Every structure is written in structure tokens, then in C-alpha cells.
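Archive entry. Fields below.
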Amino acid sequence: MTSPLLALFVRSLREDNRVKLTYFARAGLIAFILLFLFTIQTSIGWGGAPGLRFFDSVININLCFTLLAGVSYFASVIAEEKEEMTLGLLRMTNLNPLSILLGKSTSRLCGALLLLAAQLPFTLLAITLGGVSLGQVVAAYCALAAFIVFMSNLALLASVICRRTGGAALFTGLVFFTVIIAVPVANWLAMLPVRLGLIVSSSAWVGTLNSIAALADKVSPFTRVNEILRTGFHESPLCFQVVSNLALGAGCFLLAWAVFEIFCGEQKESAPSRAGIARRHSLFRAFSPGRTWHRALAWKDFYFLTGGKLVMLLKFVVYGIPLVIIHFWPVALGGPPRWKIFGFSIVWMMLVFMGIELAFVMSRVFRIERQWQTLSSLAMLPQGIRRVAYQKLLGVFPALIPAFCYFLLGVWIVVEALSKEWHAAGAETHNEWMEAMVYAASQIIFFLHLVANLSLRVKRGGLPLAMGTYFILSMATGLGMSAMRYGNSSMIPFIVLTVVATVFLHVNIGQRLEALAAEG
Amino acid sequence: MDTDNVIDIQNLSHRYKTHQALGSVTFCVQRQSIHGFVGPNGAGKTTTLKILATLLKPQSRGGQSVQVFGKDIVRECKAVRRKIGFMPDHFSMYRQMTVLEYLDFFGAAYGLGIAERDKTIDDVLALTDMAGRKDDLISGLSRGMQQRVSLARVLVHDPDLLLLDEPASGLDPRARIELMEILEELRRLGKTIFISSHILSELATLCDHVTILDRGEVKYTGTMRGLIANADGAAAIYHLTLAAEHPPASDALARLPGMQRVTPPLPNEARYTLTFDRAQLPLNTILLTALTAGAQVVSFAEDVKHLNQAFMDLTEPGVRT
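PREDICTED_STRUCTURE:
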């Protein structure tokens, strides 16, 4: 009989073994690797170390997916039990905190490590292709495995501390990026007083900061992978990064165990957050939702999904800060940039911000209704679920106003330069630009549909799943494009394909919403 | 269609992937009635309610029709939705909103103007006794109060028909009784209420009509009185309780034309059970005969069986496979 300590862990592993998805995921991953191999081969042939190029891409994609899994798959591990109010039930059994942590988190970690193991034999093909040695492959997978251990346990700690999955994901992301960003920031800070001529480079303070930066650099799996993939790598797979990542992972696990009673000791009501939304009789009533708009669903989503007026104001400030810094960048540090470059920076930055905001909102806009079982109430409104969905989207757009205002500012700055370039270019270039713009727009709209669709199909992690799916699809499209470009074909077939796929997803979202509303 | 019928379901069937949820269900719900909808778990009650609430489309079959207020629920879906309010069996609420925000949101979503919304919200808050808690967050309310808010939401667009799926589930006895009082009040206001519940004792006192569903088939539909009256065709069974045992009265009653049987009372209990032909023998004659014979009548009442018994008689034991 299984001991209580391992009961949940063993059950999770058995469940994973029983479900088809486990095997489909592994088979899909291998198919993806083989497809990737084919892409590399068709694009660069057998010359120029295709093995190294293939292996480099696979490892970097693995790193990105580990990061994504950290903020989605791993971060929900305890928080989902809290949200569903089932953690109390688990605690009423014979399971102690350690067995819950082992059962809930370590089984997921094992699943992720098995995914890594499944791809290893196929990535060994890189050695045959040339440009990479067995030592490099082993070292890279050791680095990856240690990184997964670190991320899963960091996310576990976040999941124990936070009440909701969203908070746990944010916590994991922030801690990780603090570690990663600490590297360039520490370096930059170390050199700033030197560059400004305030202190000499040999001072102790600079030396200390440089040491911290170097230490953080050694912990980073990205730096380690770069080292491994350099020609002539012959180090041991067990380096500082592997040991430190494993130690950090163990530390996070022990900390999660230590604070489990404090944060998960009692079951708390997991009502959705009302952060940033004041009540109508409070001191900050200017930020209260007030009366419902004529477009009631747009009102609801503007305030209760995107945060309302206060969050909008905060975005104006947060998005404005980097622009002010860039604009007033000291001359001693090579700034400020030229007016035109400044304008283009604003345009691109705001496009990225709008894209990120939209992706996040699309992953939540329907999922929240599903999670709180409110779809049936909305489906019964006389306008029907499809129009309800469109109205909900209307509520999302006001949240983009800050980024859009800055975007317009950027456009206003660069419009003259763009106009000159447009007039200088020929008709063929115009067509290419237009095609590229339409292609980019169609891809963005397709991606947003994919996010919304997948968020209605999986309980959690719709956004990372959509990113992964989009990545695979775009790789397949890239393969097709490179094949068709031999004949100097245009992007129009791909635009049409994207539009057809988008329409399919669009219709399917409506059907799925109706089905979920009927499920109750 | 009978214009008095708010709901008219004819030969409704529905199949999920693995099992037949509804066979050929046929029943009607009369205007301004409280119609109970009873059945064991898995009988098809929620499926029927979801179809009536337009959340689930009826699978097209010949001879099948589902009408609400004389309108087909598929073809005239929007018109039907305006006239019905559905309260599901789970809490389906935006719990980060205050009570007022929640009701105002649904009022606006149903297209009510601000003045109309204000009036309706005041009315429903008064009806559900939630006016004092209108600025409270829903997440901070007790389960009973959340159920009241849920009912207020259903009423906010002033529907004529309320579809309530297990509204008293999970409520404490006081909250249940208060909810039933609100439903009585709603009937007085002219609403038709179609209520699914497992709490049979409450349905027996609340409902005037009832439909019993078992394994997707209607086992009984009609008046509550018809279900619980212990009558077999024209034969009626009444209990006559006297102050003391009275053989002359018993003999006189037995000789009445139409009287089929007079069951003698148990020791220490002067209660006679009379079985007679309702058409031949008026109730007044029975009473008059007993009084003329010199008996002192304590009570005279029709024999009814408990709704639980009627339910057990009509439904099959065991779980559906």
C-alpha cells in the first residue's frame, strides 16, 4: 500500500499515464522536432553546421517553453485548488503539506522532465548532422533539466503564497525576470557612475557590483546555453548553473513547505478581485464604475476585467515613464535619440504593449465567465451569446486607450518621415509593404482568436498553449512560404489561409460559448 | 394551444452522446400557477429546464414542439427570453460586484432605461428584502442572501415566467421558508413559476400543479390535489373522526346509497374511514347522517397521501444506467 506521503504523487503519475493527452503531447513534440529538422535542412541544406543550428533552436525553444510553463502550468499547482475551494478537502484527508506539495507539484515536474527525455533521442540526430558533440547535447539537457526544477519550484512557492493562479503567475514571472534582468541592470549600474566620471572603474563598489552581476550571469540558463553551444565546448555538464538552479529549486520547495501552513492554513473565499475599482460611497468614488452604460457588457468588462479608470490612469503613467527616460537620456550616455528614432521607438513599443494587453485580455475575457459559471446568465440575454461576445470585446478596447494615445503620438512624430519614404518608393515596394501589413494584421487577429478559442477549451494556460500552437503553425507556414518563395510568389495565399482559419476559429468560439452556456 | 398554458411541451425528446435524457415528454404549465417539477437525479429535469430557458436547442424530431407563451422557443428565441427568467441550480454571479451594480448591470443588459431600472431595482430589492444590503459586495453575503440576489436578478426585467432550478438547495430552513414566501408573493403578483426541487414537503404546500419525471418520461402531470388525493376513479376516501365511538352512526352511514365501505375505528381512536362513490353520495349527506344519528363530529377530511409516497409510487427505484 502506498504511504500517505506519496499517495497523491503516485495517483498523479498514474493519471498522467492513463490520459491520452500525455502521449499525444509527447508525439506532438517529437513531430515538431522532426518538422523543425526538415525546416533547417530545407533552408540551409547540409552545409554550415546544420546540426548546431538545429540543436541551438531546439534548446532555445525549450528554454522559452520552460519559462511559459513556469508562469502557467506550474504556477497553478496549488492556487487552482484554492480557487476551486478544494484545498481544504485535501487537508482534511491523511495528507500532510509535504505530501500535497509532492503530489501536486513534483508529479508535474516529472511530466515535464519526461517530455525532455522523450525528445533527447531525436535531438541526438544533431550530432549526425554535424556541428555539435555528444558532450554539448548532454550538457544542454542537464542545464535545461536544472532550469525546469528551478522554475517548477519557484512557481510552487508562488502558488502557495498567492490566492489566485494569476497572482502566482505574476509572482513567478516577476521573480524570474528580476533574476534575469538583474544581470544587465547590475552591470549597467556598475558602469554608470564610471561613465558619468563620478568614480573610477577600480573602486571597490564597482568591483562588488560586477561580482554580483557575474554571479547572476552564471545562474542564468540562457548564458549557460550560449556557452555550451560555442564551438569547442568541453566542460563538465555539472556546472555552477546546474548546481545553483537545483539548489534554488530545492530552496523554493523547502520554503513552500515552510510557509504552507501560513498561506494555506485556512480556506478563504476566493471571490474575484475588485482591485482598482472603488465603491460608489468611498473616498475614491471617481474610480467607481458608476451607473451601467447602455452597452452593459462593455461596461462590465471595462471595469471588472480590465480594471477600469484607475488602471487606465496607471497605464498612462507606466507607459509614459520609459518614453520620458528615453527622451531625456543624458548626452554623456549617448542620448537622447534623434526625434525620428524616438517616434519609431514609441510606435513599436506601443504596438508591443497593445499586443501583450490584448493577448492577456483575450485569454481571460471568456474564461472568467466560464470559471464563475456566469455564461448561462449571459446566454439568456435577448441579444444572444454571439452579440454578447462582441459587446464584451467593446469593453476591452477602452483599456487600450493609453497605449493607443502614445502610439498616435509616435505616428505623429514619424508621419513626415514615413510619407517621404512612401513617396520615394516605387509601386512594387508599395505593394510589398501593403501585403506585409495585411499579413501582419491577419496574423495578429488569428493569434487573438486562437487565444480566445483555446481559453474556452483548457481550464488554465490558454495563452501559453496558444503561443506554442501559434509557434508551431507559423513554423509550418514559414516552411510553406520558403518553398513557395522559390517561385517568387506573394503572401496572398497565406493571408487567405490565415483569414479562413480565423473565420473558422471565430465561428467555433460562438459554438463553444453556446455549448458551455448549456453545460451551465 | 390553450391560451391558459404558459408552457406547452409536446413529445420533447433529447439525447446526449451516451444516453437518452428525455423520452417523449409532454406536459403543460398553466398561467399564474406554481408548477412543481419533481424527479430523481438524472430524470431529465435540468435538461428540460435548459431547453425551456433556450440554453439548449431541442433536437429536431417530427411532432415535437416546445412553446412558451405560444411562441416557439427556437424560432422566436429572443421574444421568449424577454418573457422568462431562469435561475440555475448553481450560483452564477459576479461576486466582485455590489448588489446594486449587479442588478443595474442586468437591467441595462436587458435594455431597460435608467429611470425604469431604478424603479425595478427598488421593487425587487424590496420584494427580496435586500434593500438594506444593496451596497454590499455579493461575495460578502451569506448563501441565503446570495440566493435572494439571484432571484432579484431573475426578476429585474419583469419576466412573466420564472424557471427555477433547485432554488432552495443548500439553504437553511429559515432561508428556505423565506424564499417560499417570496415565491407565493410573486404568484400573487401574477407570475407563473415553474420550480424544480427535491424538497417535496415544500412543493406540496407551495405548488398547485406538479409534473413528475422519471428516466426521461412523464409519470404524472396535473394538479397537486389530484396527485395526493387517495382516490381510485370515482371512489373517494374520507376520514370521519367522532368524539367517541358511535355504532348507530356507523350503521346509518353504511346503509347510505353509494357508500361502499365503512372501516371500523381502531381501539381508542374514533376515526372511521369511509369509501364511497363521489357521484352518488354528496359530502353534506354523510355529515348530516352522522349528526342525525347523534354522533359528535370532530373532523371530516379527505384522505391524502404524502407527496413523498406519491413520488415513491410513481418513480422506479435504483439509479439510471
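CURATOR_NOTE: Chain B has eleven helices and 14 strands.
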